[in-house]
Amino acid sequence: MRLPAGGRIDRARPLAFRFDGRYYSGFAGDTLASALLANGVRLVGRSFKHHRPRGVFTAGPEEPNALVELGRGAERTPNTRATTTELREGLEAFPQNCWPSLRFDLMAVNGLLAPLFAAGFYYKTFMWPSSFWEKVYEPLIRRAAGLGRLSGAPDPGVYDKVHDFCDVLVIGAGPAGLAAALAAGRSGARVILAEEDFELGGRLLGDRAEIAGGSGSAWAASVAGELKTLAETRVLRRTAVFGVYDGGTYGALEQGPAGGVVRCRYRKIVARRCVLASGALERPLVFADNDRPGVMLASAARTYVNRFAAAPGRRAVVFTTSDDGWRTAADLTRAGVAVAAVVDPRSDVGADVTALAGDAERLTGAAVARALGGAALRGVEVAGADGARRVIACDLLAVSGGWSPNLALTAHLGARPVWSAQAQAFAPGATPEGLRVAGAAAGRFTTAEALADGFAAGAEAAEACGFPALRIEAPGAGPEAARWATLRHIANARGKSYLDLQHDVTASDIDLAHREGFRAPEHVKRYTTLGMATDQGRLSSHNGLALLAQANGAAIGEQGPTTHRPPYAPVPIAAFAGAERDGAFRPVRHTPTHAWAERRGAVFVEAGLWLRAQYFPNPGERDWQESVTREVRAVRNGVGFCDVSTLGKIELFGPDVATFLERLYTNAWANLAVGRARYGLMLREDGIVLDDGTTSRLGPEHYVMTTTTANAARVFQHMEFARQVLWPELDVQMVSATDQWAQIAIAGPLARETLARVLDPGFDLSDAAFPYMAAAETTVLAGAPARVFRVSFSGERGYELAAPARLGEALADALMAVGAPFAITPYGVEALGVMRIEKGHPAGPELNGQTTPGDLGLAKLLSRRKDYIGRRLGERPGLTDPDRQTLVGLKPIDRSQRLRAGGHLVREGAPASAAHDEGHVTSTAYSPTLGHSIALALLARGAQRLGERVRIVDPLRGGEVVAEVCAPVFVDPGGERLRG
Amino acid sequence: MAEPGSHLERLPGAAVAWLAARRGQGEALARAMQAAFGLALPDTPRWAAASGRRAVWAGPGQWLIVAAHEPVPGGLAQELAAALTAVLGARAAVSIQSDGRALFRLSGADARETLARLCPIDLHPRAFGPGHAALTRLGQIACCLWQTDDAPTYEIAVPSSYAASAGHAFAAATARLPASRTPP
Amino acid sequence: MGAPGSPPSGQQAYSTWRLLREALNGNRGWAPVWRDAEPRSEYDVLIIGGGGHGLATAHYLSSVYGIHNVAVLEKSWIGSGNAGRNTTIVRSNYLLPGNIPFYEFSMRLWEGLERDLNYNAMVSQRGVLNLYHSDAQRDAYARRGNAMALHGVDGELLDREALRRMVPYLAYENARFPIKGALLQRRGGTVRHDAVVWGYARAASARGVDVVQRCEVTGFRISNGKVMGVETTRGPIGANKVGVAVAGRSGQVAALAGLRLPIESHVLQAFVSEAVKPVIHHVITFGAGHFYISQSDKGGLVFGGDLDGYNSYAQRGNLPTAEDVCEGAMALMPMVGRARVLRQWGGIMDMTMDGSPIIDRTPIEGLYLNAGWCYGGFKATPASGYAFAHLLATDAPHETAAAYRLDRFAAGRMIDEKGQGPQPNLH
Amino acid sequence: MRIPCPHCGARALEEFAFLGAADPVRPAPDAPLKDWVDYAYLRDNPAGAHREWWRHAFGCGAWLAVTRDTTTHAILAATSALGGAGPGAGSP
Ligand SMILES: Cc1cc2nc3c(=O)[nH]c(=O)nc-3n(C[C@H](O)[C@H](O)[C@H](O)COP(=O)(O)OP(=O)(O)OC[C@H]3O[C@@H](n4cnc5c(N)ncnc54)[C@H](O)[C@@H]3O)c2cc1C
Ligand SMILES: NC(=O)c1ccc[n+]([C@@H]2O[C@H](COP(=O)([O-])OP(=O)(O)OC[C@H]3O[C@@H](n4cnc5c(N)ncnc54)[C@H](O)[C@@H]3O)[C@@H](O)[C@H]2O)c1
Ligand SMILES: Cc1cc2nc3c(=O)[nH]c(=O)nc-3n(C[C@H](O)[C@H](O)[C@H](O)COP(=O)(O)O)c2cc1C
Ligand SMILES: [Zn+2]
Description:
The complex is a heterotetramer of chains A (980), B (184), C (427) and D (92).
Chain B: E1 7-10, E2 15-21, H1 26-37, E3 47-50, E4 53-57, E5 62-67, H2 75-88, E6 92-96, E7 101-107, H3 111-116, E8 133-138, E9 141-149, E10 153-159, H4 163-175
Antiparallel strand pairs in B: 1-7, 2-5, 2-6, 3-4, 4-5, 7-10, 8-9, 9-10
Helix pairs in contact in B: 1-2
Chain C: H1 16-24, E1 42-48, H2 52-63, E2 70-73, E3 89-90, H3 100-111, H4 113-117, E4 128-132, H5 135-150, E5 156-159, H6 160-166, E6 181-185, E7 189-190, H7 193-206, E8 210-212, E9 217-223, E10 226-232, E11 237-244, H8 250-256, E12 263-273, E13 283-285, E14 292-295, E15 301-311, H9 319-332, E16 340-352, E17 358-361, E18 367-371, H10 381-394, H11 408-411
Parallel strand pairs in C: 1-2, 1-11, 2-8, 4-13, 11-18
Antiparallel strand pairs in C: 3-7, 4-6, 5-6, 9-10, 10-11, 12-15, 12-16, 13-14, 14-15, 17-18
Chain D: E1 2-5, E2 9-12, E3 17-21, H1 33-41, E4 49-55, E5 63-69, E6 75-80
Antiparallel strand pairs in D: 1-2, 3-4, 4-5, 5-6
């Protein structure tokens, strides 16, 4: 029911919204929950397990019941707290976890079967027959569990991610946080004040506090006004700090304003100091049927009438064990809600406190034994001090079990909260470095204490950052009592007493867990699921611990609460991802000829982050195989070119490069002449092959190394480790030049003729002047610097030409032009791969981090005359075992058969079983040169088995091929074509 | 106060050379650069400029020498190498990088907010201003950035193969800026 | 030795009938699931570590090898370590011959676990999908799937269309790394992790094993190269044999005996979302980023990724990894974007230098080691317990665990599935 | 975690790459194989102060020996393999 006046809503801005198919109206400044209450909607959801009818229980993020699906289609957002959802025009919300409807939920039978479904029941049954678990039982359980539904469609939201830095981060904008921000902000420090709510003020908004003679909310507004004027203070509303991380890093989630582009913004805040002013959480009370719609936290009831001008009921009873609860009676009465009685089990409540009850009946020493009603509260059964029971009719029961500091963030780095007997609550333990707790979160529960503490904390934090300490006199605040008792459980034979409202964990579940030996709080949590719901035990933790302590015969403080974990406020998965999703998941690296290849219709393939041309289809070609075959033939018979710029290129300078290379590579480097290139093999320290490639000496103290595309970053890092850490005495400088050069492989019998025509005149390409494994610097395209290497991956006469990357496309065009008479053909990585298999060069599938040089037939590259990385550990027996699998070639006996990578090798006549598994096929290709399928494989003692037949078995995909073992070089084993 | 918004441009013709000191030759190199180009190589994450060349700290003992243009690709590096060889002998390492780095210039009142979405470093004027440089990340891409003026203007170098992705990252970040920002 | 025996007499049998009877009786007749034992001064065998492996070891020692005079010493509450915080995936889709038979043995034990323990640990064989995004990755999975098949392990290589029929909600369009198919192991799935701990504790306890909680081992009593017992926070306890099964704390406990191990402790995070209605019916692993996911029976999306990447005993995670994992989620299945992360936690992983475990004797007589489970040890729980029990009882390695030797590094016989070499954070 | 790079200042974790323990020293080429195995494979793995190699991979590229408490993640010290800052520091 909407109160005729008051509240912080803007009555000039009415908003229409829908819930459960019906239209309602509220005002700007409402939450969905306050608007529903103002419209008299009591039933808002169903509980997780028992499917009991539930109503709004809180006015904040700890809400266990009023969770709705918000929005439609791809915009549907499940499990949205109605209590924190700002009302906006056209908002549509749907109840969740009920079928067929909220009012009539078939699963509510679960409630009747509750004794059967007690904690842990599923561990004791559903075992027979075992196949029924996946087929019958589990689907039933799964369907019943869960809350709202995901839309099933990709999330269309836009999520922002920001790095923030400040001197002082203040978390929470209640009186303590506002004071802290003001003190720090005035000192000139860079301050961020983060507040979860869309309004600043904390409890000042929901309570009728008095500050400096005016209302608390007016004070909050004036502070907010001043904060805006401070140049280095930023106020972030709708921003929950959800986690504390190492090094003063805080995670925060800001909700985008309605109608904005950004749905939410994930902020990583690095703060030198932090003031945690997160307030306190009110505790519910545990009695029979305490979950009926109409039962609500007392502070929430106050918030609804004071802040939202929404009456959550017409006739109320207040049930409290805290002095603070009594304020509720006064506020409700003032708002026109009839208060029938205030029930307080304590008998020593002060007269100043009981005076707050006004005309309501005061029942001290009494307790509510049971709530009555079904889908709505009808009344309460009160057990008087004398034990007599009576029923008081009401539709609102405001409950208060006292307050617990909201200390989750203090525990994220591992500190354990400690019991404070004085506060009758867990208090922050050791706090993270640089973080100070202030206000109610620190046990300074009254507004006056919170203010003073906040000013002091803010000033101290600023001072610690080198700003002047400002001692600000806290304004006076009205009188306020803050005292409560912990009440355990008002046992009742009938009805269920809920601890965890969402997960339907009851007091009897705690007893049961205890009876079954689950006595550590963490065991109880895991056995009963207490505190594992969306509110993470904010409402249930204290009461659960109290009951467990009782069962254990221990004091509550002897056993800590269960571990607090981030996020304090739930974070959408999409928010953590930000913009790095879908196609923008990882950046793309483009080669210098990318646009050119795109224009030629190339098909691209991912190679790590790179996109490379896979092949260049010609019109009329049926499939990739046809294109690739044409490309290979062109290279073998004429000339082709391929962009190999993705190979890692590392420039090395200095007088000690040769020594450095000697230690990095297994083979000899001391004698490499200027103008020459050499193939090198690099190992990890454990003797396994890391990478291979060529390194060229361009000048006396200048070398350039190439690495494989896949290992470029790892090799660079490995070399930097060697340079900086292992051998800092060597005078070597290194820099990556991968992106600088467009490097084009030009290969084929006509490669020289082609290359000669693109190089600037004057460079002698004759085999005498520029033999196999020569390297030189020259110019290309009229004066641009260029490098030429006579190396080959294809087995044909080959050159690699490097020119500045911006000239990549021009170079490709030039090659097409000069090569036209030779029918020059651009080729992609697929043809490149075919030719390297034909030549038996190891690549990714062979350099798999498990192979030794010996395995790959490269043992001849192991120098015996020097130390190099990997030498000693490579000598271990397991790595030199003659039974190891080594690289061989395979040809199908029936040449028409296709070989597939991943098949395993079994001796002919032996069964296909693990015991006879002798290796596997690493790489395969259709060889246009040989006219049949070929493969590289790793085969036990392979080098000694040339000519033998093996079965290639492929039980995974079916099919089997018999193949002949051969040397891994299929084309031109003598290397004549290479040298020309 | 500057206009809100920011302006991003690619600096396609810019010249970049990587320069590193030989072991123990840092001071000699610094003197040589001073003598040859009037450039004082900074030894902390800053930059210095003289006669159209900027020396940006790029790691201990390493610099990026940046100029707006060069006559031929790689000309800047060649010029440096020639000058240093003349003064020092082969006592410095110079690598052509004009095509290895893509240079962006981001300028305007929103520039800092845009970078706050991409770089995990503090660019607040109290922490970072004209004359400062940093090696850090631009989203997932390694970058070297420096501030040239109070507009503020930043120049950002990324490996050139990432240029398109860097451009997208800038655009995506700009699109996510809060609609109404409180002026700095 | 043989199949696990029939239920012990000391155990309160669980059945639907019993459940009904107790429900009518206010659930007052249930007995403790295991005895919270006081330590005695002497045992035949002591197991250090009340995680899944330690408790399973005790169960198989007593039920298969007839050794009952056993205590499991747990410094905190049982299941407080990785057993109580893992993402519950079980599978036997390994590549190398040293691993496959062991994990397949484990899978078989999972398949009979409920009957063996009379406890429903919710073994859910919902299928594990490892996605591939390139031809090379497909070939690598073919190699793996064939290795599995040769060992009698089930596996299927799905192409894109077959995968799409199974899991239509993946980002088949507009993906940075195209989804090309998956290796599927249908028998793989999930198991309710805590229930495994409780089920083993219950079964072992019923056979006389003492499950001792809040009892931290702080030293070893070693004389003439032979272990005589341990020092604990609850006093010294003597034993003929001591088995160490402390997972992330392996390095620490070994150091108490003067041993250095080929192990680093690293943190691995996991995440759970708020509960939502069933949407993900399998276990799915992204092949182009660090992300894997399943949905718990309660409805939470349980997911994770790679290690945080540095040595840690802090048992908590960082933000960059959270981002990395969620980026993977949004690249692979952007429909989960609005599921909210409810909790983020970490566990301490005993990462070995080759990514594979160790079940072996140590240079100290009577001291045995079960360690190096990396982030894959939950699925190993039954086989690890069985093999460790075998080793403790017979002093010989179990046939499926024969490769898990401590000296394999010196011998150069690493079991390196990923081929990353001696850098634990890369495994 | 934020690591104070001696060259660049305190930077976020996501700029760094981790290698492992910094205490093991690469043995002499002719040292017994056992020393090599220990070097490559055996670790103290302490709960407490741990000296370890990190590379400022997205920053200046220096390898840093960082002493860090593995139980709290507090950074106790960080030194660069390249020595202090300053011209020529790149080539110790
Ligand atoms: C986030 C995460 C996700 C994972 N996901 C999977 C997965 O999906 N699938 C999978 O197969 N594996 C997974 N794992 C790995 C798996 O959880 C572990 O490998 C496995 O649980 C380790 O064996 P355990 O159960 O015996 O260890 P733990 O449960 O850690 O048991 C060791 C016990 O030893 C105790 N202890 C330690 N020191 C002492 C001492 N001095 N005295 C007495 N007691 C001591 C500890 O308190 C602990 O209870 C995951 C791990 C984590 C952290
Ligand atoms: N008398 C009593 O018994 C009693 C008990 C408890 C509280 N109180 C009242 O509570 C107030 C205490 O002042 P205070 O400033 O300490 O607390 P507060 O509750 O007024 O303010 C705390 C603020 O922090 C915000 N917050 C909490 N966690 C956050 C997070 N992680 N990120 C962002 N924002 C977060 C909350 O939304 C809230 O606005 C006083 O007004 C006092 O009257 C009274
Ligand atoms: C498979 C699985 C599912 C989980 N589901 C939930 C859940 O629904 N709610 C919850 O609060 N925590 C859930 N958790 C997390 C636990 O609460 C807890 O964080 C985790 O076991 C680590 O323990 P710790 O946080 O006490 O250190 C789940 C954990 C696992 C392993
Ligand atoms: Zn640095």
